[in-house]
């Protein structure tokens, strides 16, 4: 299956389990692979026939702005559900990194796949 890609998308949100984390916004970095057949859009050179990565990136930003979750697991799971529902995505892989959360690691996070390929 073909995929539309979004890599290194940076958003800010309230995320974390500790008291000090509830009062600040922290950066998350996202990579997404979104399954779709790109051939109809390519044949007609028509954005309306594919997954619009700009619109999806904007929706992720809005989700992050309004979200106040504790776990990166919850953020990933709920975001995946929103994107699949609103954009009709049959399968996606979402990797979510929280840079700087662990002192000696470049990033920590989760990676999930949802849906059928
Ligand atoms: N599996 C997880 N472990 C941890 C999380 C998390 O969201 N998922 N969160 C924290 C803290 O919020 C941490 O990021 C603060 O540095 C700890 N472990």
UniProtKB/TrEMBL annotation:
Dihydroneopterin aldolase/epimerase domain span: 4-114
Pfam family, one: FolB
CDD domains: DHNA_DHNTPE
The protein's annotated pathway: Cofactor biosynthesis; tetrahydrofolate biosynthesis; 2-amino-4-hydroxy-6-hydroxymethyl-7,8-dihydropteridine diphosphate from 7,8-dihydroneopterin triphosphate: step 3/4
Reaction(s) this enzyme catalyzes, per UniProt: 7,8-dihydroneopterin = 6-hydroxymethyl-7,8-dihydropterin + glycolaldehyde
InterPro entries with a match to the protein in the record: Dihydroneopterin_aldolase, FolB_dom, GTP-CH-I_C/QueF
Role of this protein: Catalyzes the conversion of 7,8-dihydroneopterin to 6-hydroxymethyl-7,8-dihydropterin.
Full protein name: 7,8-dihydroneopterin aldolase
Biological source species: Modicisalibacter luteus
